[in-house]
Amino acid sequence: MSNFNDNLRSLRLDMGLTQGQLAHKIGTSQSSIGMYESGARQPNFETLEKLAKALDTDIEYLVTGRPRNETPYSKLMPLHRVRVPIVGDIACGEPIYAEEEYSGYIDTNDSTMFDFCLRCVGNSMINAGIKNGSLVFIRKQDIVENGEIAAVAIGSEVTLKRVSYYPDRKTLILKPDNPAYKDLIYFGSELDTIRILGKAVAVQNKL
Questions:
Q1: Which of 76, 171, 198, 200 has the most CB atoms in a 10 Å sphere around its CB?
Q2: What pTM was computed for the model?
């Protein structure tokens, strides 16, 4: 079975794409594609989805090289259940006051690495599949790549947005995924009151 690095390079070449062209298709840098192909960096799940779509394949084939019609039932792994704390609400709209206290737990599987989840209020991220009442699972980290969705604390308020940070201009832009909402833009000393709580890695909507 081939590995991800070889599969990525082979699929890219089969489609006649340069590293730069593939990077442009998924909204990342050419150096990131180079590091993925060399094994120096591993993409997150969101990036894997984008790569698979850009290369007209699926994530399983991209990662493992396994033919799509092969069903390895004998290799299925048991699904372990974990309890994840629900830590209050987060705004999908204007930032709202955040109370850092558990409002309950949710049982889920451990296939994605996360530390806590937040209940969304509003529809500013609806085009990302995040609706009013959705539970968004957050992995704690204080830095995210531009374009990634993160839980962001603005003083005592929190919001869920796509992050774009430009350190040379001391500018942070928090972008909604709904054209009905405006970007939130912060400059200079305003950044002193802002911190990234973590990256959004999964969402669960009401059935």
A1: 200
A2: 0.54
The residues of the chain that CATH labels 1.10.260.40 are 4-73
Is beta strand 171-175 parallel, antiparallel or unpaired with respect to 104-109?
A: unpaired
What was the pLDDT predicted at 69? Answer: 43
Q: pLDDT-derived band of residue 206, with 50, 70 and 90 as boundaries?
A: low
Catalytic option among 38, 50, 111, 124: 124
CATH of region 81-204: 2.10.109.10
Is 50 marked active-site? no
Mean pLDDT of the chain: 78
Selecting among 32, 134, 161, 175, the annotated active-site residue is 161
Q: What CATH architecture is 4-73?
A: Orthogonal Bundle (1.10)
Give CA angle at 53 (46, 49), nearest 5°.
15
Question: 163 near 174, Cβ under 8 Å?
Answer: yes
Write out the residue limits of the CATH 2.10.109.10 domain(s) in the chain: 81-204
Looking at per-residue confidence, does 72 or 56 come out higher?
Answer: 56
CB 202 within 8 A of CB 114: yes
**Structure token pair of residue 170:** 């001391």
